[in-house]
Structure formats: C-alpha cells, structure tokens
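Moderator note: this is an archived Q&A kept for reference. The question asked for a predicted structure of one protein chain; the sequence and the answer are reproduced below.
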Amino acid sequence: MQPTSPNHALQRTRPSRCGCNPRVPRAGSLSLGRSANAETSTSEIVNPMNLNHAPSAKAELLIRRPVATVFNAFVDPAVTTKFWFNKSSGRLENGKTVHWHWDICDQPAEVRVKSLEENKRILIEWGQSDNFTIAEWLFTSRPDDTTWVSITNSGFRGDGDESSIKR
C-alpha cells in the first residue's frame, strides 16, 4: 500500500531506469538516513530540494542461518549470484578488486575490498569510473543460530536529483 504523502527524498534515491542500482544493496528494506557521523539535525536543512548532508541507504535483516554461512554468502560469488548480482570476477578478499554485473540493467560495478573481518564485517568501495560509494556489512551472531545483518551504503555525491539519477 502506498503512503498518502510520499517521502520525496526516499523516492528520489531510487533509480528510475530499470529498478536496480549497483550502488545500493538489494537486501531487506532500505531507509534513507544521514551518515552516522553527521552532527546536524534535519531541522537545519535550509532547502529540502538540495542536500546539506549526504544520504545513506541502510538495510537490516535477520537471516535464519549461522553467521559463518551468511558471511560466506556475501563473499562467495557462487552463492551471491543466486540472490543478488549475476556475475562476478571473483571472491571478496582483503585488498582485492573484483567486478560485479547485473544482467537486468546491464550495470557493472567495480568493487574494491577495503576490509574483510571473517564473520563480522565487509567494507568495500563500489561503483563506476569516478562515482564510488562505501558499503559496509556488519554481521551479528545471535544465540538462536541466526544472524542479524546491517548494510549501509554511503558517500553519495551531488544534489538530491543528481544522487538519484547519476549512474
């Protein structure tokens, strides 16, 4: 069901072309927020049509599998290609650069692995040419052998309209 007064800022962060954006994780539900280290409140935004703070996209989900299985699903393309991108040039490893590809919208992404902490954290830069953002996955093991995954994509540039449509 569509809300009666749409969140225009959130709508503009969604791609309009083919429904897939290689810079935004496609797991769970996405929410628009500010970078975690931003100190200014939203009441200080002077013009809602221009961004004073870079937006971030965040998805959080509970996966009913042990943390080692879930972590491996995100670093091993043999698993990841079953639920996210279609092709990968390799497994995620510290300091490695790989390429991911989405067939549905013919979008490749260069992925630079900045940090990989087994079963805890993945930090990458990803994007195209000079338009890279930062994505971070945090994995939290839970007592019932499930895993809480928090994914944040940040570092978007430009004004609100540019951030939503630039590829």
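Archived answer notes: The helical segments are 8-13, 67-75, 77-80, 160-165.
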